[in-house]
Amino acid sequence: MSFASKQVAHRRLPPLPGSSNTHNSTRRRTMDSLSNLCPGSQQSLSFMTSLNSSISKEMNSFLTLTPDKVQTYLSTHPGVLDEYVINLVSSAKLEEWMAKKKEHAPKRTDSQYEHVPNSNEAYLNKDMTTVTNNLVMTLSTTCDISQMLYDITNTTATAIKSDCFALYILANSAHDVCLFRPNGARESRFKVCGPVGGGTTISAHVAKTKKTILLRDILGDERFPKGTGIEGSSAQSVLCIPIIIPHDDIVGVAEFSRTWESKPFGEMDLQTATAMVAWSSAAIYQGQINRGLMKQGDLNNFLLEVFKIIFEDIISMEKLVSNIMSFTKDLVNADRCAMFLVDEEKDELYCELFDEGAEKGENRFTKKKIRFSTSKGISGHVARTAEVVNIKDAYQDPRFNRDVDKLTGYTTKNLLTMPIISKKKVTGVVQMVNKVGHEEQGFSSIDEKNFETFAVYCAMALYLSKLYSTLNHQTMIHAIAIEQLSYHQQASEEEFGRLLSKPFSNKVTLSDIEKYEFYGKEYDKDLPQLFLMMTTNLFGAGLFSLSKLCRFVLTVRKNYRPVAYHNWHHGFNVAHCVYCILIRTMPNGTFTELQALGLFIGAICHDLDHRGYNNMGMKNIDSPIAALYSTSLMEQHHYNQTVGILQQSGHDILDFLTKEDYKTVLKSIKDAIIATDLAIYFGNQKILTKDLDEGTFDLDKRKNEVMALMMTAADLCAICKLWPTQQETAILIYILQE
């Protein structure tokens, strides 16, 4: 950095002609020199007489005369030198001195960042129409505010005849002053000079106070011990102006300087530069507004296209989200964009599309699921508070969730995060990342205003898309329901009456049922009675309404289709296997009564309305079930069938439970049925195997995984029974189903 003492070294004054070590020789040589310059001149004699008197008085205080003492004398008596040069030095001599001065002037190097102003024909032209058109074109098309400010500073420097100029841009949330270098690479165009504040450089001081400063001589000002802050600068007179746009936002500092060789800046220079910078700042602000209006026109066209798609070619949520993300990036000139939807039930934010950036002018989005709590990150803060958050340096904000960057491998600098509100509730959050070309300044207030308008239409589009999804979902449910009603019926009153009059079988004892090898195929007509026997033995005779339990088991039997394997007999056998496990583990408290209820009911209902196809088969035949569910298709359907039966009149066997216990049992039933999907088994098996191998297995911590494996084991138990049972099972699966 340049200090005042260094800058003084560049201020070289012309030496006083003649010098000596004695008073007399100095006087004589001075008189001879002056006589030689203007011989025989009366003006010369008068001046020499005056100078002789003045020098005589001053030289009496010096024992010896040296060049340093002469320089000291002249610096304290500038009038003497002025009078001497004006009256006695010829123009030819002055030109000779100036030529020598230029030869010995300090040379600038590439490491010095002061810029010499040059005429820019785009703005300095005698044809006002040309100037106006060029300026309007620049303001309406360019997005590089820093380069535009540099051009304005350069033009202003030319207008006020500044020897040098520099443009400083505020960065890091307006905490640092950065010197702008237009010819550098994009990542090196900004050189951090130091923090905003006093006691350092004049530009840092102006950035802090937002006040213009005009100095005739910066070297003698104690407020700025580092001067201009530019190494090797020969600046003496300095004019420093803050660049402020409406709403009192400072974006930079324009610094103009003149060396000692030039006349110091005056009041007219101050007025000219201030006016040019102020009008230019206003023009930039207006240009930003105009670009916003142009964007608004594009936005309106985009919204028309979105609504056309919604109403004419019903779109998916994924397509809608990708459209919103693409246009949002263009609207605010962002590098990346993320859109999170709110999961109210889980109090989480989630997205399924990740912005990979643009490639050959086309935005690339890949499917990558990201989900996190609304208590985390800036997006979570916006989802909770519905506030707009505009951050210039994301990593300096403690609310920023760095997990997303770690997951995606992307580095976030600027963030503009805004809520999408529908019916006074936040339904989504859009996050714009890294302002292209303006990472140091970040997103502007104009960007916020433009997106606020866009967000209203986004909310409407999302609402209509969700409404369509809901309607489509209900249509699929209705189609399935109609299909079911055409086939399924409730048990007849005659069947119900017979079972209610004789609920338990006398053909089989409880001790027989408790044997694992028991196989109920030979007791086909007695299976409902055997189920009632197992139920009352597990949970007691007084827990359930016998009437409702009879209707329930008969309707469950009726809702199993007569397919080769996944039929009523298979459902009973799975329930029997779970019964054998529970009757041995419940007494020691391995499972709670609510857990046991969920497992046992889930087992008897786990294949309700099975069509004889697995999940992939249902997709291949374009079943409505495949359109209704995304994972565990048939298992989801079996569970919904179970809930449907439990909700029918006279079938609500769990009516004795409290509301909370009822929810707990329903969840256990669902978990038990979903666990019969073999795709889920492998994950649970891997977890438990690892715990067992490492000796860290804890039943209390792994209860859910254990119950899931119980259901898988029960579902496949037929292949582990006696050989006749295994043989019959193999025939049903591999021969009859073919």
Question: Please, could you describe this protein's structure?
Answer:
Residues 492-738 form the PDEase domain. The active site is at 566 (proton donor). Zn(2+) 2 binds at residue 607. The chain is α+β, with helices and mostly antiparallel strands and 738 residues long. Helix content is 52%, strand content 13%. It is built from 27 helices and 12 strands. The strands form 2 sheets. It has a 6-stranded antiparallel sheet with strand order 3-2-1-6-5-4, sandwiched between helices. Strands 9-8-7-12-11-10 form a 6-stranded antiparallel sheet, with helices on both faces. A hairpin with a 2-residue loop joins strand 11 and strand 12. Helix 25 (678-694) crosses helix 26 (703-715). Residues 1-27, 33-40 and 106-112 have low confidence and may be disordered.
Q: What characteristics describe this protein?
A:
hydrolase, six-stranded antiparallel sheet, 738 residues, alpha+beta, 27 helices, 3',5'-cyclic-nucleotide phosphodiesterase activity, 12 strands
